[in-house]
Amino acid sequence: MTEAVEYDVVVLGAGPVGENVADRTRAAGLSTAVVESELIGGECSYWACVPSKALLRPALARADARRVPGLAGSVQGPLDAKAVLARRDERVGDWNDAGQAEWLDSIGVRLYRGHGRLHGPRSVVVDGPEKEHHLLTARHAVVVATGSRAVLPDLPGLVGARPWTSREATSAREVPDRLVVVGGGVVGVEMATAWQALGSRVTLLVRDGGVLPRMEPFVGEHVVDALKEAGADVRLHTSVAAVDRPGGSTGPVTVVLGDGSSVEADEVLFATGRAPRTAGIGLESVNLTDGSWLTVDDSCRVEGTDWLYAVGDVNHRALLTHQGKYQARIAGAAIAARAQKVPLLETDRWGAHSATADHAAVPQVVFTDPEAAAVGLSLAEAERAGHRVRAVDYDLGSVAGAGLYAENYRGHARMVVDLDREIVLGVTFVGPGVGELLHSATVAVAGEVPIDRLWHAVPAFPTISEVWLRLLEAYRG
C-alpha cells in the first residue's frame, strides 16, 4: 500500500546539511519532510567530523603538553587507547540517532526512514524498512542533501582485501599494530596522525610529491615533517599497484607498490577521493544523470529546474560539513522567499540568497599536529584567477604568544593581498593550535575588510593572534 502526502518541501538526506535546510524551511512556515536511509545526523556525526576529531583531540593535547616545560615530563607515556575509543563512542552516541530524530520532531519536521528517490518533478517515493511505500509531493521544492561516499581505486585484489575507508578508520574498535594509509589528503593525514598516536606503526603512501595539495605548499611540508618525527613512515611519489589479503577480511594485508616492492600491514586505509551519493535516487526521472554531481546556481537550485535544490557535498562546491550547512541556510532562505513569491531575490554577491562564500571564503581546519587552517584563495589560486596579488609570510614561532604556547614552536602564516582593492583574499596558518585563529581570518576575507581598517583591529598581547599585526607590518614595510 502506498501513502500519498503533500508537503511544501521534501529533503532527501538527514545529515547536518539536510537537517539545516529543513530547520530553515520549517522556521519560515513551510511544511517539511525529511527522508533518511541511514542514521539521522549523517556522515559527519557518525563516521567523519565528530569521531575523527574525538580520536585526534587526545593526540593533539598530548603533543601540546609535551612542548610545555614543567609538564612535558608527565605526558611521555602512551595514550590510553581504550579510553580514547570509548570517548569516541560516547561522542557519536554509540551510533544511535534517537536524539537527532527527537530534534526533528521538536521543530515539526516529519521524518521518513527508508530509501528515497525522485519520481518525476516534485515527487519522491520512499521505500520504508517495513516494505511500506510513501509518495511525497512537494509544492515548492525537493532538496537533495545525500552527501558523498568514499571511492576505492580499481586495483587488483583490493575489494577482496576488505580495506578501510574513512568510515572504518573512524569507527574501528581496536588499534591495528601496523596500518598503511594510502592518500595525502585531509582524511589520509588526519587518520595517520590519530592512529600513529594511538599506537599503530603507520606507513603513509602518497602518489604526489606532498600532502594537502589544495593548501599552500609549506603546509604539507610542516605536516610531513611532524608525521616523520612522530614515527610514521611517509613515502612520497609512491603509487599502489595491487593489494593482497589471503585471509580475506582478516590476517595480514600486503600492499604492492608501483616499483614492485611491498608493505605488509594489519589494516590498509584508502583515502583516495569521494563520489556523490546520488546513484539510485531517481535523477534519470527528471532528465539528470544517475550518480552524478549536481550543478547549482548560487541559491543552490539545480540548473535547468525551478524546484530542485542540491546542498552539501552533492553539488561539489566545497566538500565540508560547515560549508554545506551554510549552503543549507542560503537554500532554505531562497526556497522560502520563492514560496512567498518575493519578486526579487537577493542573489547578488554576498546577498541573502547567494552562497558567495563557496567561491571566496571557504574555511577549513586540518586537525593534524601541527594543525593547518586556511580560508579564501591560496597564492596560486589567486594568480590563476587573474588577481594582482602579493603574498606576505611570517614565521609564527616568532610571535610572543607562540613562544608562550609551546617551547620551540614551529609554524608559518601567509596572507594573500589583492593589490588593487587592498583587501585580504586568503590566509593560511600552520602550527599548533592555529585552528582557533581561522575565524578571524574568515571574517577578514568574507567581510572584504580593507587593510587600513585591519590596522585598527588590535590583537591582544600575548596571544598567537598577534601574527595579524606582524603580517600587516610586513605588508606595509
TrEMBL record:
<dbReference type="InterPro" id="IPR016156">
    <property type="entry name" value="FAD/NAD-linked_Rdtase_dimer_sf"/>
</dbReference>
<keyword id="KW-0285">Flavoprotein</keyword>
<dbReference type="Pfam" id="PF02852">
    <property type="entry name" value="Pyr_redox_dim"/>
</dbReference>
<dbReference type="InterPro" id="IPR036188">
    <property type="entry name" value="FAD/NAD-bd_sf"/>
</dbReference>
<keyword id="KW-0520">NAD</keyword>
<dbReference type="InterPro" id="IPR023753">
    <property type="entry name" value="FAD/NAD-binding_dom"/>
</dbReference>
<dbReference type="Pfam" id="PF07992">
    <property type="entry name" value="Pyr_redox_2"/>
</dbReference>
<feature type="domain" description="FAD/NAD(P)-binding">
    <location>
        <begin position="7"/>
        <end position="322"/>
    </location>
</feature>
<feature type="domain" description="Pyridine nucleotide-disulphide oxidoreductase dimerisation">
    <location>
        <begin position="362"/>
        <end position="468"/>
    </location>
</feature>
<comment type="similarity">
    <text>Belongs to the class-I pyridine nucleotide-disulfide oxidoreductase family.</text>
</comment>
<dbReference type="InterPro" id="IPR001100">
    <property type="entry name" value="Pyr_nuc-diS_OxRdtase"/>
</dbReference>
<dbReference type="InterPro" id="IPR050151">
    <property type="entry name" value="Class-I_Pyr_Nuc-Dis_Oxidored"/>
</dbReference>
<protein>
    <submittedName>
        <fullName>NAD(P)/FAD-dependent oxidoreductase</fullName>
    </submittedName>
</protein>
<dbReference type="InterPro" id="IPR004099">
    <property type="entry name" value="Pyr_nucl-diS_OxRdtase_dimer"/>
</dbReference>
<keyword id="KW-0274">FAD</keyword>
